Amino acid sequence: MAATDRAGHPLPYDTYREAVARETLLLCEVTEGVDPAAPVPSCPDWTLADLTRHVGALQRWFCTLLTRLVQEPPRSRDVELGLPEHARDYPGWVAAGVPAVAAVLRDTDPGAPMWVWGEDRHARFWVRRMLFETLVHRVDAERAVGLTSDIDPVLAADGVDEFLVNLPHAGLFAPGVTKLRGDGETLAFRSTGVDGGPGEEWRMRLDPDGFRPVGGEAEDSGPVTAAVRGQAADLLLLLYGRRSYQDFGFEVSGQAAVLDNWFTHTAF
């Protein structure tokens, strides 16, 4: 299934709401009682305190946008954080915000039109975005303390889709994306099914004027210039720069130069 077939609202809204709370509390459990100055290798120059503060602040900002149903880009990202004085208390601060976040998400009409920076111009965009910001940073925290991460394969596949559908719009804060070009190459990301067989597929086309997801019978049947196949969770971490396509567990085919061009410009 191509990314454009899933774009917008592929999972039930309640799935996102519940997963946001679950992933947030997992992050808090991982960071509670750990040295807040500990480095986070997958987020260069960040400590666990930086990571935890980022997640808590971002969730509060997203909730502000949702509460107001903003219709144009906000001029400021400043919101009242109520941040604790000591970084060791950040995990508890994030956890304490879970009920308020849950209330905002519960009271939000997911189909309400509002400003977003991505593809789906409705309130549900922010809930989906909040989930994968939190989930990936939960994995960052687990890696920082030496824990193995478990990612639900259904959520992982949806996270791959969410990333690829929105990436062409991400130049505002990921300027390298605006320089991603090609000559008509098609790059495929293929997930492995639970039984080891074929899973879902997402295709991206690189043209001289930019790149985009491609889908539909005609486009899906065309040639692929390069492809990466792996478990959905691994693909998710690959797209977010937490893994390399050269790592064990990926099956790679086609032109490596196309993959290198992609990953050089898609740091998120």
Any key phrases for this structure?
5 strands; globular; about 45% helix; Nonspecific Lipid-transfer Protein, Chain A; Four Helix Bundle (Hemerythrin (Met), subunit A); 2 domains; single chain; alpha+beta; five-stranded mixed sheet; disordered N terminus; about 270 residues
Put the structure in a nutshell.
This protein is an alpha+beta fold and 268 residues long. The chain has helices spanning 3-6, 13-31, 48-68, 90-96, 98-107, 124-144, 153-166, 217-220, 232-239, 256-265; strands at 185-192, 198-207, 210-214, 226-230, 251-254.
What's the main sheet like?
5 strands, mixed
Number of domains: 2
Distance between the termini: 24 Å
Which H/E pattern describes the elements?
HHHHHHHEEEHEHEH
The mean pLDDT is: 93
Structural class: alpha+beta
Instruction: Report the C-alpha radius of gyration, rounded.
Output: 19 Å
Write down the CATH topology of the largest domain. Answer: Four Helix Bundle (Hemerythrin (Met), subunit A)
Strand content: 5-15%
Name given to the CATH architecture of the largest domain: Up-down Bundle
Widest sheet: strand ordering: 3-2-1-4-5
Shape by Cα distribution: globular
CATH class of the largest domain: Mainly Alpha
Tally of helical segments: 10
Report on this structure.
The chain is an alpha+beta fold and 268 residues long. The protein has 10 helices and 5 strands, in the order αααααααβββαβαβα. Strand 1 (185-192) and strand 2 form a beta hairpin. Helix 2 packs antiparallel against helix 4, helix 2 (13-31) runs antiparallel to helix 5 (98-107) and helix 7 runs parallel beside helix 9. It is globular. The relative contact order is 0.14. Mean pLDDT is 93; it is low at 1-9.
